[in-house]
């Protein structure tokens, strides 16, 4: 029996879940634009374990969403996961944030494009087929009027996540469908984390780093 704790902090959603053999047992999450991860993450971990009647020493692995996404959110999630792995002497598993979003959408045909809002008209995105297999890797993309045209001309294109909001403003095609309600969640990490656990697909706890995709840029307020 594999008890795995999943942490998802790549976006505004602070999300923690516990799974047993890939099946969700308990979860706690809160989506807030104020990024309250530093205050809530450890509280959610404790509450999820208490709800499931599980103690820390019973955990067999920690899974963390590796990005891309919020620099601060990813740093908090990964540092917490690594700290727990060190303390408990258990393996660290990483999962891809955008694939976790794609898994929330089931389609019969076409492609799913999960996207996270970046600066200005830029998004972090990847493209998956109807079987949730990646057909275009994760990258940063500046949205233009002809974005994803090669896919929309062939069939349905489902744009999901916070980045879909800005796409609504400039993209028009009958095959484009927008859903900005989809957010990264630890609840969709359970099966993937368990599959990697069975394969022994673990990260080096000492050297693992989040997938930031782009360098962090410190933005300061303009003086009035």
- Tell me the span between the first and last alpha carbons: 59 Å
Q: Quick one: overall form? A: elongated
Uncertain runs are: 216-224
Q: What is the structural class? A: alpha/beta
Helix content: 25-40%
Work out the strand percent. 25-35%
- What's the number of domains? 2
**CATH structural fold name of the largest domain:** Nucleotidyltransferase, domain 5
Number of helices: 6
CATH superfamily annotation of the largest domain: ATPase, nucleotide binding domain
CA-atom Rg in angstroms: 18 Å
Neighbour order of strands in the largest sheet? 3-2-1-4-5
Order of helices and strands: EEEHEHEHEEEHEHEH
Please summarize what this structure is.
The protein contains six helices and ten strands, in the order βββαβαβαβββαβαβα. It has helices spanning 37-52, 71-88, 97-102, 149-152, 164-170, 190-199, and strands at 3-8, 13-20, 23-31, 61-65, 92-95, 111-117, 122-128, 134-142, 157-160, 176-179.
Question: Your description of this structure?
Answer:
- There is one protein chain.
- This protein has 224 residues and is α/β, with parallel strands linked by helices.
- Helix content is 27%, strand content 28%.
- The protein has a 5-stranded mixed sheet, sandwiched between helices. Strands 8-7-6-9-10 form a 5-stranded mixed sheet.
- Strand 9 (157-160), helix 5 and strand 10 form a beta-alpha-beta unit.
- Helix 1 (37-52) crosses helix 2.
- It starts with a strand and ends in a 25-residue tail after the last helix.
- The model is unreliable at 216-224 (pLDDT under 50).
């Amino acid at each position: 029996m594999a008890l795995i704790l999943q942490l998802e902090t790549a976006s505004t959603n602070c999300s923690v879940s516990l799974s047993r053999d890939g099946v969700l047992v308990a979860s706690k999450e809160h989506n807030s634009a104020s990024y309250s991860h530093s205050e809530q993450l450890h509280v959610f971990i404790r509450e999820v374990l208490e709800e499931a009647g599980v103690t820390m020493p019973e955990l067999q692995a920690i899974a963390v969403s590796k990005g891309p996404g919020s620099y601060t959110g990813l740093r908090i999630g990964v540092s917490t996961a690594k700290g727990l792995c060190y303390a408990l002497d258990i393996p660290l598993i990483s999962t891809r944030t955008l694939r976790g979003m794609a898994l929330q959408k089931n389609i019969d045909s076409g492609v799913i494009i999960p996207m996270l809002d970046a600066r200005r008209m830029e998004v972090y995105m990847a493209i998956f087929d109807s079987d949730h297999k990646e057909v275009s890797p994760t990258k940063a993309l500046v949205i233009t009027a002809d974005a994803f045209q090669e896919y929309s001309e062939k069939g349905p294109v489902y744009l999901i996540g916070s980045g879909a909001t800005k796409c609504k403003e400039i993209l028009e095609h009958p095959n484009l469908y927008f859903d900005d309600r989809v957010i990264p969640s630890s609840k969709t990490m359970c099966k993937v984390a368990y599959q990697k656990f069975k394969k022994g697909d673990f990260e080096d706890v000492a050297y693992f780093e989040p997938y930031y995709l782009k360098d962090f840029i410190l933005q300061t307020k303009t003086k009035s």
